[in-house]
Amino acid sequence: MHRLVVLYPEPADPDHFRDYYVTNHLELVKNWPGPLAWRYSFDVGAIEGAATEVAAPYFAVFEADFADAATMAAAQESPHGRRLAADVANYATGGAVVIHYPVQDGTG
């Protein structure tokens, strides 16, 4: 499995971000061919050291799972994937950090 993670720093207008993201952007995600599953949250927390809560560097997070890296790349390069990427500018005034990686099984 391959995971795509989008980390969103604090936007200029958090209310607009939430409204646009849920009403418009996630509607596009629902029809995106490729992901096996996806999820998001606006309740991003951060812990430093021994469970000391600190201000999170991100406002929201999105993640999507794909069968493999090639499937993720094809989804991103598709017309729908390009439309999703272009839509980010409509709500993420703080920008977005996109990372991806192969998921390793952590069970023993």
TrEMBL record:
This is EthD family reductase. The lineage of its organism: Bacteria, Bacillati, Actinomycetota, Actinomycetes, Kitasatosporales. Pfam families: EthD. Residues 11-93 form the EthD domain. Gene3D superfamilies: 3.30.70.100. It comes from Streptomyces monticola.
